[in-house]
Specification:
Blueprint lengths: L11 H15 L11 H26 L7 H10 L10 H34 L1
Length: 125
């Protein structure tokens, strides 16, 4: 499955590097940091925690996308459309059913809009 743009590609090294650059930008005395410097350890911890936070955000986004939602997240998403999982139904089958119902609902909506437009046109003539 291709990842949508809203799902951020994560890299500890990139986050760490940006944090280090920002630290040096704010205070140039940190420009000569070596790996054993305590400030580097603080940056590593901060970068790791930011990576975990961003990963959690990615997971929250995925739980709201039909393509990626699983288990209870998929059930909650289906509830929005008024669809309930059948007993014993696996995620993949339920996802397909939900998608079909969603598309059927869209088609009904389009037909309804077209019907209303035809009525308006008849009234105008």
């Amino acid at each position: 499955m291709e990842q949508p743009n809203i799902i951020e590609k994560l890299s500890f090294e990139e986050i760490f590097s940006r944090m280090k650059e920002e630290l040096v930008r704010r205070d140039e005395t940190f420009s000569g940091l070596v790996e054993s410097d305590p400030a580097m350890k603080v940056l590593e911890v901060a970068a790791w925690r930011e990576l975990l936070l961003r990963q959690r955000i990615n997971e929250a986004v995925k739980s709201n996308l039909l393509k990626f939602a699983m288990g209870e997240d998929l059930d909650n998403l289906a509830e929005f459309y008024g669809v309930e999982r059948e007993k014993g139904e696996d995620d993949e089958r339920f996802r397909k059913e939900l998608k079909q119902r969603y598309l059927a609902g869209e088609q009904e909506e389009i037909i309804g809009i077209m019907h209303c437009q035809q009525i308006r046109e008849l009234k105008m003539h």
